[in-house]
Design a protein that fits this description.
about 160 residues; alpha/beta; 2,3-Dihydroxybiphenyl 1,2-Dioxygenase, domain 1; 2 domains; four-stranded mixed beta sheet; elongated
């Protein structure tokens, strides 16, 4: 077997396989790989329960670990998905939020498993990288937003 040198491990209560399948159908360059099942009963599960799921999210190798309810996700970790336009921004945002997720501020949302996502249009990243007054206008336009509005950011960049 050939394993990547670095894999992001995400802890789920018991839904790692469901989450991996959702990510694979939602984001390009995403897939589900091997599913490892318990070879015998264990303290928080039964033989043949899903233990881990190998998956890729937008090219990033991950493994989902069904570890039980003791650890919860936080905004300290998030996937940042860079989008090219409003249509792509809407598609990812709406997929996450309409599948039991919740909106947050400034392009952040959470999926139904508690994983945080930043759905960020490239135009916002470019404005911030430009610095100066352009970055300030784009930043101030972004602050009250939930899902990022590309046209508003473009207008802010122009001043």
């Amino acid at each position: 077997m050939n394993f990547p040198k670095n894999i992001i491990c995400l802890w789920y209560d018991q839904d790692a396989e469901e989450a991996a399948n959702f990510y694979a159908k939602t984001f390009p360059n995403s897939s589900v790989g091997a599913v490892q099942r318990a070879p015998s009963d264990f303290p928080s599960g039964k033989e043949k329960d899903v233990l881990t799921v190998e998956f890729t999210v937008a090219g990033i190798p991950c493994v989902g670990l069904n570890g039980g309810p003791m650890f919860k996700h936080s905004e300290a970790f998030s996937f940042q998905i860079v989008t090219e336009d409003q249509e792509e921004t809407d598609r990812y945002w709406n997929a996450i939020v309409s599948n039991g997720g919740q909106e947050s501020m400034c392009g952040w949302c959470k999926d139904k498993w508690g994983i945080s996502w930043q759905i960020i249009p490239r135009v916002l990243l470019e404005a911030m990288a430009a610095g100066g007054a352009e970055a300030k206008r784009a930043f101030e336009a972004m602050m009250p937003m939930r899902k990022i509005d590309v046209a508003t950011i473009e207008a802010a960049r122009r001043g």
